[in-house]
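note to self: dont lose this again. the chain is below, predicted strucutre after it. 241 aa total, dont forget to put it in the shared folder this time
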Amino acid sequence: GKSMFFATTRTGHPVVITEMDLRTGKSRRLAHLGGTRIENIPMGHFANLSRILSLSSDGRRLLFSATKNHEDALYVFDRKDNRLERLAMPGFMSVSQSQFSPDGEKIVFSGMKDSISDIYLYDIQTREVSRLTQDPEDDQMPVFTPEGDAVIYSSEVTDPLNRRKTSRRLYRLDLKTLSPERLENLEGESRDPIVSKDGSKVLFILETDGFSEICELDLKSRAVVQLTRSVGGSFTPAYDS
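---
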């Protein structure tokens, strides 16, 4: 709880990952994240920002996806050793929105193959990649539950009465059965879920009529409460530690 990590374009492109000391307010650019090893860290745009950084539960490793020579890969920055490791992802058109599992042994991410985005799991020890969802919908923004036995993500849903009309809903995927369960049926676009430490609630962004607000979903009652009322919009919420 002493540091915060964020991506910024305040000095222009490429995107810079920064560590801020919350006690002093001072920030520093993390070493070895620029130059020739990384050309770009995709961050989205103002109307559609998504979470791109993940910190391991022990606070030692920082995870994100980046591009080099038009190829996406996962990158892990070891804060103790000040070392950056590239995890190649051959066969993917894009790799994004990665997150460490609670035990730090696996990574869940959104990957695109054949122009279809699904949720994938990467085993850090074996370097094996397994596909968790197999559907034509656009699956993105996966996060683990605290127990590590399920993933919550955002998926595109097509209106059966109007194939041109789509929305995004939150789903929970059991990692043993790989059975998806829809968590809410709101109007609009539900994005960027993040699960509370006790696993009972989910913060997420709900975009309706051009406005993006932070909402909270109770996983037991399925009740949703809107927490913000913004002028410009709210994005990528997170619970404190």
